[in-house]
């Protein structure tokens, strides 16, 4: 930050995982394998959706974009977290910290919007199957993806524009594994109560409201299917179960971290790891293990035997 803003702090220090050296090595190896698998799994999905002629449908088009966002969210924080496990000085520059927060909320907001688009896609596919191709046309799909990027950008800029010029002149220790708004804002040298409330309303309540709306939409789909045909309910449950799992894994940690971000919670590091490391890996596993069509397309492209 500029000295004219009254800031003297040039870097932040992560506490990270306060465990023994042996556990640090174990975490390093585990998270390295998980991150490698995350990148590989999501790239496989993106390549398969792009080059397989059997997967040129709206659902897989959106799935490919979801894999891209998952990979980006993990890449923003995980490599730095992994290298810090073996580093004695777990530091990050102020602008590096701002960059990390910018892209975290950028891709997080974009994925949030994309998950809503995927719920709409499943609603049309199940409740209006005869009009599915007409409604979910290429123009709408491209618009939904562009909208997710735009909302992600607005979401992150609305918070970062108020954070980037905060003066930091006191403690610079962050009790986490990466930079995030609630923890960084608390280190500012000025009163940040209004900004804290804004973060709660922007990230916390938005996550909670979107999660509730998604659950309501899935409930409407299931009720509609049950009214039409009892036999179709099991098929709808099979189709929606993967989406419900992904939505829960994505929004659950977000709600706990951002709905009450300025209260002390001992499990924040665990939720942060789950949100940035585990969930991006589980998404491709959920969609590939439960989707025979995706597995068949991968075999045809000789990605898996």
Describe this structure in words.
The protein is mainly alpha-helical and about 300 residues long. The chain is built from ten helices and three strands; from the N terminus they run βααβαααβααααα. The protein has helices spanning about 20-50, 60-85, 95-125, 130-135, 140-165, 180-185, 195-230, 230-260, 270-290, 290-300, and strands spanning about 10-15, 90-95, 175. Strands 2-1-3 form a three-stranded mixed β-sheet. α3 packs antiparallel against α5 (about 140-165), α7 (about 195-230) packs antiparallel against α8 (about 230-260) and α8 runs antiparallel to α9. The longest helix is centred in the C-terminal third of the chain and has 36 residues, at about 195-230. The radius of gyration is 21 Å and the shape is globular. The model is unreliable at about 1-5 (pLDDT under 50).
Features:
mainly alpha; 305 residues; single chain
Tell me briefly what this model is.
The chain has about 300 residues and is mostly helical. It has helices spanning about 20-50, 60-85, 95-125, 130-135, 140-165, 180-185, 195-230, 230-260, 270-290, 290-300; strands spanning about 10-15, 90-95, 175.
